[in-house]
Amino acid sequence: MADNDKQQDRLQTILTVFDRDWMSSDEARTEATNDLYFARVSQWDDWLSQYTTLQYRGQFDVVRPVVRKLVAEMRQNPIDVLYRPKDNADPNAADVLMGMYRTDMRHNTAKIAVNVAVREQIEAGVGAWRLVTEHEDQDPTSNNQVIRRLPIHEASSHVIWDSNAKQMDKSDARHVTVINAMSMDGWKAYAEEQGFDPDDIPDFQNPDQTWLFPWLTKDVVYVGEYYEVEEKKEAVFIYQDPLTGETGKLLQARHRECYRRPRRARHAENRRAQG
């Protein structure tokens, strides 16, 4: 019973945080959605057509050719990442990381995720993709994993960042909510898989039944994934090999497994995301 009450309190805290983040970015999100509609669908909005009595409603679409040109240039000349060894790091390690990064970016999901994010950033000013890990193969004895990039469509209205984040890339955000659309059958299957009642749907103050984002309809349920950054201080022990002079670092958890005396110790602050 205590665990259930704790989970309910945690849920209410998340709902309150989400409501604050949603309201603080509501105006910017509305403008981004309007720009996305203007660039992809039509330049005549519903409210504008009500004040126009002309029978012919033409439009000079100068936005779409520019968007296609920029996307084509991005595909021909993609932005690459260059790894360089720092301090006394092995230069061969940088080449290995370059090869791993290029291999991950050649995957179809990575190409689609980058193309979707870049196109939406050009059209609406906001683009995002998701980083996940998958097992490298189906071998049950192997735990090797690879990084995959998954697309997030309409990131301007489906990714709700921390209202206190000021950086353009949101690197200073303490939490974020990713909204996913599910059908009713998909929602029931997801609820059964996670082990909770599919009929128990929490109430959100925002968003409401608006033309921008119908939060709950008869056919679609939107599920929010909440992630937050946890800062934790850990002691780091630095060792030096008496023969080669090379230094190595160990966290406090693995320090007990090492029998050598550390050269020096310091405290480091780690940031990790959990959801």
Descriptive notes:
By secondary structure, the chain is an alpha+beta fold. It has one domain (1-251). It is built from nine helices and seven strands, in the order H-H-H-H-H-H-E-E-H-E-E-H-E-E-H-E. Strands 3, 4, 5, 6 and 7 form a five-stranded antiparallel sheet that branches. Strands 1-2 form a two-stranded antiparallel ribbon. A hairpin with a 6-residue loop joins strand 5 (220-240) and strand 6 (247-251). Helix 4 packs antiparallel against helix 6. The chain is globular and about 85 Å long. The mean pLDDT is 78.
Distance between the termini: 23 Å
Helix content: 25-40%
Poorly predicted runs: none
Number of strands: 7
Number of helices: 9
Question: What is the molecular shape?
Answer: globular
Task: Please indicate the percent range of residues in DSSP E strands (runs of 2 or more).
Answer: 15-25%
N-to-C series of helices and strands: HHHHHHEEHEEHEEHE
Gyration radius, rounded: 24 Å
Q: State the domain count.
A: 1
Kindly list the characteristics that best describe this protein.
five-stranded antiparallel sheet; 9 helices; 275 residues
Topology:
Elements: H1 2-24, H2 26-40, H3 46-49, H4 63-76, H5 91-105, H6 108-124, E1 129-135, E2 145-151, H7 155-158, E3 159-161, E4 175-183, H8 184-194, E5 220-240, E6 247-251, H9 252-255, E7 264-274
Antiparallel strand pairs: 1-2, 3-4, 4-5, 5-6, 5-7
